[in-house]
Amino acid sequence: MSRPPGRRPGPTETREAILAAARELFGDKGYDGASLRAIARAAGVDPALVHHFFGNKEGVFVAAMRFPVDPAELLTRIAPAGREGVGEAMARSFLEIWEDPARRAPILAMLRSAMTNEKAAAMMREFVTAALFARAAEKYGIPPVRVNAAAGQLIGVVILRHVLKVEPIASAPVDELVTMLAPALQLHLGE
Amino acid sequence: MSRPPGRRPGPTETREAILAAARELFGDKGYDGASLRAIARAAGVDPALVHHFFGNKEGVFVAAMRFPVDPAELLTRIAPAGREGVGEAMARSFLEIWEDPARRAPILAMLRSAMTNEKAAAMMREFVTAALFARAAEKYGIPPVRVNAAAGQLIGVVILRHVLKVEPIASAPVDELVTMLAPALQLHLGE
């Protein structure tokens, strides 16, 4: 998309053009395959402007896909717990995101697409691997397969709780779930 | 469906008529809402004949939905491990079912439907609760929410491994996964 002649586009229009180009490229090429430079080119803007608005590719993805979690922020929030408290901190942060219907809806929509469409699966796989799993593994020196196992525990629980609505886990208070899941996550992620 | 006049239907036709009626009723009324008697009536046969072919409602469901696991058989296979070995036995049995593409396909199809369709979700929820979760909780005297948490660990892992294909868990040997997951499941299900 190149800029139409006439009036110079304002910041809102430019931002929206970048996000539209990003959604198309991420959907088409996956997270790894869509470069920030290619997104800028498709939006008809300078790559420096994309940096200016969104910081990096991860920031563009979070904004474009309305991903309700900024992975960098999530990891920063969990960090103070240290490796000995990572299980509980991760359980609470993750479950609380899913408690909020406004944040649950977009992530559930992405998960549904990923369950039924290989391109959507590739996009989600590449994004969570690069932005969350690999970074958490490196930060704490945990084998990546153990990070996957911990993520599996949380993903499975939110599917039973919020999608399949299996009782009693669908109605259990978050605090009860955190208490129950923290030791299992700690087993995967602790020393 | 009542029997057409003329030739008396053979056992294969009768069996297929029962399964077709069952699929329709389970899809429409859910697992709890479709009685064996109603399935027999819809198929135009005597309820005793449904018992004769499939034993009970669970047997009709497993056959009608081509569910690749007979829950009663699965619980029988896990039983010898006792409560102290239930984590490992459950991890191995569950993961091995998913390793076999012929068994994975129908269960994955059901899970995909359940993720996107409330009627399919209700059917799956009611079936796994009645045939697996409630029975396992009762058998071992485990709080049902802990059975859900253990199921969540396994469901999340097979989604990451077989659907989203996240590495390294997608390529890890089953034995490695059993070793890694057994203690987490034991934490939920043990004394």
Automatic annotation (TrEMBL), chains A, B:
UniProt keyword Amino-acid biosynthesis present: no
Any GO molecular function: transcription cis-regulatory region binding
Keywords, in A-Z order: DNA-binding
Coiled coil: none
PROSITE patterns: HTH_TETR_2
Gene3D superfamilies named among the record's database cross-references: Homeodomain-like (1.10.10.60), Tetracycline Repressor, domain 2 (1.10.357.10)
Domain HTH tetR-type, first and last residues per copy: 12-72
Keyword Manganese: no
A Pfam family hit: TetR_C_16
Superkingdom: Bacteria
UniProt DNA-binding residue ranges: 35-54
Matches recorded under SUPFAM superfamilies: Homeodomain-like, Tetracyclin repressor-like, C-terminal domain
Protein name: HTH-type transcriptional regulator BetI
Source organism of the structure: Actinomadura macrotermitis
